[in-house]
Amino acid sequence: KMHRGMADMMKAMGSGKRRTSESSLAVHLGAAEQALADGEPEKARACLDRAIAEGVREADIPRMALALAETNRYLGRHKDSLAWIDRRLAQSPSPKARAVLLRARITSLRGIDTHAILDQAAKALGAAWAAHDMESYAAVLMAGAFAAYRKGDAHAAQKFTRLADPIKFVTLPSQIHAIRARMFAETVSGRAESAMAFSREALGKQLELGDYGAAANEGNNVAEHLIELGRPAEAQEQAEQAADLAARAGHRLVAKYAHVLQASAIAEQGRRDEGIALLRDAGVNHSTHALSADSAVRFAFWLVDRSNLGDAEEAASVLTVAIAPSTGKVLAGPLL
After folding, report:
1. What is the dihedral angle through the alpha carbons of 28, 33, 37, 42, rounded to the nearest 10 degrees?
2. CA-CA distance, 185 to 142, in Å (whole number)?
3. Neighbouring residues of 195: CB distance < 8 A, sequence distance ≥ 6
4. Torsion region of 263: left, alpha or beta (phi above 0 gives left; psi -120 to 50 gives alpha)
5. Which of 79-88, 141-150, 191-200, 282-291 has the lowest mean pLDDT?
6. What's the mean pLDDT when you consider all of the chain?
7. Of 170, 96, 101, the residue nearest 129 (C-alpha)
8. Are 229 and 195 in contact (CB under 8 A)?
9. N or C: which end of the chain has fewer CB within 10 A?
């Protein structure tokens, strides 16, 4: 009886430790998600690091994967996300967890290797479909259309939108992903008015959802469409609104590109010297290849257009530095 009593006590102690660990993990994850909502990605990352140190259970993998990918996207630390995701994928997770891990992997690749998305999208789509996870399915469709856009492949982008067309997405996030997939397909097909309409629709839903970081990014997309359509004054106003939303969300990368777009719109309005000075201040060396390359293209264009003494040499230097590490095609357009 004494042995049985000791065994029961030890079992209860072990169960208590597990409950404490599970409770602590939930607290850290919840704090990270709240920090993201409050525009504090550094705080979110610290909370996630503590959660990882506690040990992430199978049931918490989806929340952890999405929070980690989003946090590191704000901070430009995409490779950190990929390392954690790949370790969990190697542990044979459940179908539900695997679908979200592959979705988060695709999300992380958007910051460093868009070509790899096209290679891996089919596997991620298959996993999401098998797990009946339509939000992940829509997110991967959007990422695939984005990657095709970055490659300049309109046919590939339309393949992703055709997969979305027959599906009635129920949740607001999945609807936003599907709308954005169509926006990228329209953009790469050269239909700026239609693309802008989809961007505005997505922006409205993101604001409704309270996702200010995503809304800021979509605001940048609207500003780019306005520049392309020859409406720079409207573009400047839109980019300023996007910068404010990005600051509220703590999304520094989106805020930086909003400043690049503001400067471009100013230059488009005939204030070339002012625009060039602002582009120089904004800089072109950022933590994502796409952002660096696109910022450099805009800066170099206006330098060459002005052609003051030394402008051509500065333009060549800017492009060389920004394009050297890029794995994707250089295009000016929506970045995220």
Report:
1. 60
2. 9
3. 183, 184, 186, 187, 225
4. alpha
5. 282-291
6. 88
7. 96
8. no
9. N
Phi, psi of 326 (to 5 degrees): -75, 140
Report the C-alpha gap between 115 and 110 in whole angstroms: 9
% of the chain surpassing 70 pLDDT? 87
CB 137 within 8 A of CB 126: no
Let me know the angle formed at the C-alpha of 181 by 39 and 207, rounded to the nearest 5 degrees: 35
pLDDT at 34: 87
Which residue type occupies 183?
M
What distance in Å separates the CA atoms of residue 315 and residue 94, rounded to the nearest whole number?
A: 51
Ranked by mean pLDDT, the top range of 32-36, 94-98, 207-211, 280-284 is 94-98
Nearest Cα neighbor of 64 from 106, 109, 28, 39 is 28
- pTM, two decimals, is 0.81
- 249: nearest Cα among 216, 201, 282: 216
User: How far is CA 52 from its chain centroid?
Assistant: 22
Phi-psi region of 133 (alpha: psi -120 to 50; beta: other; left: phi over 0): beta
Residue found by looking up tokens 């604001």 in the block: 207
> Token pair of 11, please?
């079992």
Instruction: Determine contact, residues 208/172, Cβ cutoff 8 Å.
Output: yes
Question: Model confidence over 219-255: pLDDT tens digits?
Answer: 999 999 999 999 999 999 999 999 999 998 888 888 8
Q: Which of 30-34, 83-87, 127-131 is predicted least confidently?
A: 30-34
| pLDDT surpassing 60 at residue 50 | yes
- Euclidean distance between the first and the last CA atom of the chain, given in angstroms as a whole number: 64
Residue 23, Cβ neighbours under 10 Å: how many?
11
What is the spatial distance between Cα 331 and Cα 97, in angstroms, rounded to a whole number? 34
